[in-house]
Amino acid sequence: MLPKEMVAIAIATGAPTLRAIGTAPKFKVGDDIMTTNDHVSTHTRLPGYARDKRGTVVGYEGAHVFPDAHSAGRGECPDHLYRVRFDSETLWGKGSDGPGAVYLSLWESYLVSGDVS
Amino acid sequence: MRSIADMGGMQGFGPVDRADDDTRFKAEWEAKTFAVNLLSLAAGCFNIDESRYSMENMPPADYLTTSYFEHWLYSLEDLLISKGVLTEEEYRARIAELTEKEAGHAA
């Protein structure tokens, strides 16, 4: 139980989700990736419109609590988190309203290598 | 699968309205819902990811016709019951009590 004198501090600083992890990140900035197409019926932070799509890693944000596991009572299971860029055209096809991009913070579990070779 | 909360790319809801950026609570119950939620999180009754998952599990028609803080209230009630902080019976009894009180006021 949080002591009552800590409540104001907890609310002001939030609950950081950055964690230590024993494995090295699989991807680096500039890597092409594909998102998975796992249509799970449980909680996930991979939006439906960004599944099975090609993108580029533009940033690495450290390892964070993995919401898919944490929401289901499976513990924090920290996983590497990346900033990934998707071209509007890739996501929306003919419905795209011109050049542009969507940036998503995505966990490594949602990504596979996008190398075509 | 996609939950009703996964609305990116759906049409028919109109453009995102940025005109109303007033983040203040619009009613007393919103502030209370927010406060009880945060304190329940701080006390470890449930975590933020369980809270989001619970909101996503709202019946879709209810999700679309209720406000932001009603989503919070739904997940708060859902989790306090499923985590055993409240029983379903206690929850129903309290609703019945309040309904009766309200009817008394109206009479």
What report would you give on this structure?
The complex is a heterodimer of chains A (117) and B (107). Chain A has one domain (29-113): SH3 type barrels (Roll). The longest helix of chain A has 7 residues, at 7-13. Chain A is elongated. Chain A has 117 residues and is an alpha+beta fold. Chain A contains three helices and six strands; from the N terminus they run H-E-E-E-H-E-H-E-E. Chain B is mostly helical. In chain B, helix 2 (48-56) crosses helix 4 (68-82). The radius of gyration of chain B is 16 Å and the shape is globular. Chain B starts with 27 loop residues before the first helix and ends with a helix. The model of chain B has no long low-confidence stretch (mean pLDDT 93). At the A-B interface, helix 1 of A face helix 1 and helix 2 of B. Chain B: Residues 1-102 form the Nitrile hydratase beta subunit-like N-terminal domain.
Corresponding CATH superfamily of chain B: Nitrile hydratase, beta subunit
Q: Largest interface by residue count?
A: A-B, 22 and 18 residues
Series of H and E elements of chain B: HHHHH
Mean pLDDT of chain A: 93
What's the overall average pLDDT of chain B, rounded? 93
CATH topology grouping of chain B: Cyclin A, domain 1
**What percent of residues of chain A adopt helix (DSSP H or I)?**
10-25%
For the termini of chain A, the CA-CA separation is 53 Å
CATH level 1 name of chain A: Mainly Beta
Please indicate the percent range of residues of chain A in DSSP E strands (runs of 2 or more): 25-35%
Task: Compute the number of helices of chain B.
Answer: 5
How many domain regions of chain A?
Answer: 1
Largest sheet of chain A, described in full?
A: 6 strands, antiparallel
Helix content of chain B: 55-70%
Q: Can you tell me the overall shape of chain A?
A: elongated
